[in-house]
């Protein structure tokens, strides 16, 4: 019990470190309430149940989450697992916290299996996100602790939870720009979903990084010296290891050649002003020759999830290839915590306003209505509209849903007939791909257009999955044949 008390004190201290005015009394109250409600319950590991909500709350406090979110995390399993109801919680903690707990409880109850479970889960996540994105954040914290304690579950359940985390939770975290959470979700799950590959990648990363730590410290010293000389104030310089799962994905993209993955370790330079980012880039390039085609300006052109930084890869000290990432403090926080870095707290009403300024959040709100409408249709027609559907994104962050294995051509026609007709190529997650590439959940798709293109290729029929694309291609091909007939009609 003493260790539980210590954990609670740690939670309180973490909150005060982030915000000396944090409402820690509320959090203590929520803890006592939850501890009482879960009294006598045990986790599969044999520990008292309260360990789990406490761990989730600590995770959120580490991110600097507001007291309401931390309290809701402490209470998140109360309505589902104990005799205490949402009404009881509302009496004690008010509407805001209760609505979050309700949101998580709704996410938790899934009666489906297999593909249906997958689709239903995805749908629920989107609906919850559109209503209150904080709910997803608590769900992530909940899931991260569950993943950390998977070993005490039966293998089948272990695999299912890990797979769901990898295929649903991680892409959504990525979409929300939460790099830190995405990385953790992926690496905790990777181990259970692809155990052999996990071991191999982990071994390889350790091997590649061990010998280099000393080297990177040398490089940091050199950079610090040069930046000081140039009068640039630096917040910090640190290096990060690439997370295991994204390393695995990258190795696969590079024909399994580990030597083509240059950013297993990347050096991060965090400064105070945007102008300093470019100044640092200039200094690095003066010191070391950059590799061609590897300078990326995500400040001028942020990634769809809001990620901003300058990336460059150089022939560094002793000719070694090193990637640098240059960003401001604000960009760094956004990259780690995504939208959670921008919670706006309304002092007057003591509520946290959901972040609504992001275009895609608005888009989700719209989509939620659409989804609800479809759900109603679904009841009427008894046809599962969501079966085998995937959600992909435009570079601006609009959500497009398509059938499974749909191609960039389907995507193009879904946006606009003209885009489909003039489609000449596609980028998926910023890589050029062939037009018949099957799209996956969470992909960001950009269509390349050739304005001089006369129309779609009849070959596309063989791989498109939507009726829309199929009928447009047929229609256009027929029209062109007709006009050809008109031109050359005299010959036939
Ligand atoms: Mn839980």
UniProtKB/TrEMBL annotation:
<dbReference type="Pfam" id="PF04607">
    <property type="entry name" value="RelA_SpoT"/>
</dbReference>
<comment type="function">
    <text>In eubacteria ppGpp (guanosine 3'-diphosphate 5'-diphosphate) is a mediator of the stringent response that coordinates a variety of cellular activities in response to changes in nutritional abundance.</text>
</comment>
<dbReference type="InterPro" id="IPR003607">
    <property type="entry name" value="HD/PDEase_dom"/>
</dbReference>
<protein>
    <submittedName>
        <fullName>(P)ppGpp synthetase I, SpoT/RelA</fullName>
    </submittedName>
</protein>
<feature type="domain" description="TGS">
    <location>
        <begin position="388"/>
        <end position="449"/>
    </location>
</feature>
<dbReference type="GO" id="GO:0005886">
    <property type="term" value="C:plasma membrane"/>
</dbReference>
<dbReference type="InterPro" id="IPR004811">
    <property type="entry name" value="RelA/Spo_fam"/>
</dbReference>
<dbReference type="InterPro" id="IPR004095">
    <property type="entry name" value="TGS"/>
</dbReference>
<dbReference type="InterPro" id="IPR007685">
    <property type="entry name" value="RelA_SpoT"/>
</dbReference>
<dbReference type="InterPro" id="IPR043519">
    <property type="entry name" value="NT_sf"/>
</dbReference>
<comment type="similarity">
    <text>Belongs to the relA/spoT family.</text>
</comment>
<dbReference type="InterPro" id="IPR012675">
    <property type="entry name" value="Beta-grasp_dom_sf"/>
</dbReference>
<dbReference type="InterPro" id="IPR033655">
    <property type="entry name" value="TGS_RelA/SpoT"/>
</dbReference>
<dbReference type="InterPro" id="IPR012676">
    <property type="entry name" value="TGS-like"/>
</dbReference>
<dbReference type="Pfam" id="PF13328">
    <property type="entry name" value="HD_4"/>
</dbReference>
<dbReference type="GO" id="GO:0015969">
    <property type="term" value="P:guanosine tetraphosphate metabolic process"/>
</dbReference>
<dbReference type="Pfam" id="PF02824">
    <property type="entry name" value="TGS"/>
</dbReference>
């Amino acid at each position: 019990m003493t260790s539980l008390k210590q954990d609670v004190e740690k939670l309180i201290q973490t909150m005060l470190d982030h915000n000396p005015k944090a409402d820690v009394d509320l959090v203590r109250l929520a803890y006592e309430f939850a501890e009482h409600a879960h009294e006598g319950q045990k986790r599969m590991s044999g520990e008292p149940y309260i360990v789990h909500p406490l761990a989730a709350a600590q995770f959120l406090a580490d991110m600097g989450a507001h007291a309401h979110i931390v309290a809701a995390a402490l209470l998140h399993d109360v309505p589902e697992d104990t005799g205490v109801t949402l009404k009881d919680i509302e009496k004690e903690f008010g509407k805001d916290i209760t609505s979050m707990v309700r949101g998580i409880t709704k996410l938790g109850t899934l009666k489906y299996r297999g593909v249906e479970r997958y689709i239903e889960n995805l749908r629920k996540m989107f609906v919850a996100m559109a209503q209150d994105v904080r709910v997803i954040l608590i769900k992530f914290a909940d899931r991260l602790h569950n993943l950390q304690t998977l070993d005490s579950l039966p293998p089948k359940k272990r695999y299912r939870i890990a797979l769901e985390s990898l295929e649903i939770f991680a892409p959504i975290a990525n979409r929300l720009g939460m790099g830190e959470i995405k990385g953790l979700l992926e690496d905790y799950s990777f181990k259970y979903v692809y155990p052999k590959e996990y071991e191999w990648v982990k071994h390889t990363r350790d091997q590649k990084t061990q010998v280099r730590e000393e080297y990177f410290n040398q490089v940091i010293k050199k950079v610090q010296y040069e930046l000081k000389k140039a009068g640039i104030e630096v917040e910090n310089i640190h290096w990060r290891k690439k997370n295991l799962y994204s390393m695995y994905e990258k190795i696969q993209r590079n024909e399994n050649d580990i030597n083509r993955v240059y950013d297993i370790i990347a050096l991060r330079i965090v400064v105070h002003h945007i102008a300093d980012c470019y100044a640092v880039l200039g200094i690095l390039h003066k010191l070391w020759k950059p590799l061609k085609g590897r300078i990326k300006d995500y400040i001028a052109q942020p990634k769809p999830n809001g990620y901003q930084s300058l990336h460059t890869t150089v022939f560094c000290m002793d000719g070694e290839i090193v990637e640098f990432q240059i960003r401001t403090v604000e960009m760094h926080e956004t990259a780690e915590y995504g939208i959670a870095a921008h919670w706006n707290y309304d002092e007057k009403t003591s509520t946290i306003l959901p972040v609504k300024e992001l275009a895609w959040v608005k888009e989700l709100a719209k989509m939620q209505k659409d989804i609800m409408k479809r759900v109603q249709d679904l009841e009427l027609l008894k046809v599962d509209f969501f079966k085998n559907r995937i959600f992909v994104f435009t570079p601006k962050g609009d959500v497009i849903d398509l059938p499974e294995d749909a191609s960039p051509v389907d995507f193009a026609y879904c946006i606009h007939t003209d885009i489909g007709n003039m489609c000449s190529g596609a980028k998926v997650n910023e890589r050029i791909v062939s037009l018949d590439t099957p799209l996956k959940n969470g992909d960001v798709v950009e269509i390349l257009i050739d304005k001089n293109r006369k129309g779609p290729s009849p070959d596309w029929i063989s791989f498109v999955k939507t009726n829309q694309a199929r009928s447009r291609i047929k229609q256009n091909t027929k029209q062109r044949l007709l006009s050809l007939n008109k031109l050359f009609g005299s010959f036939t």
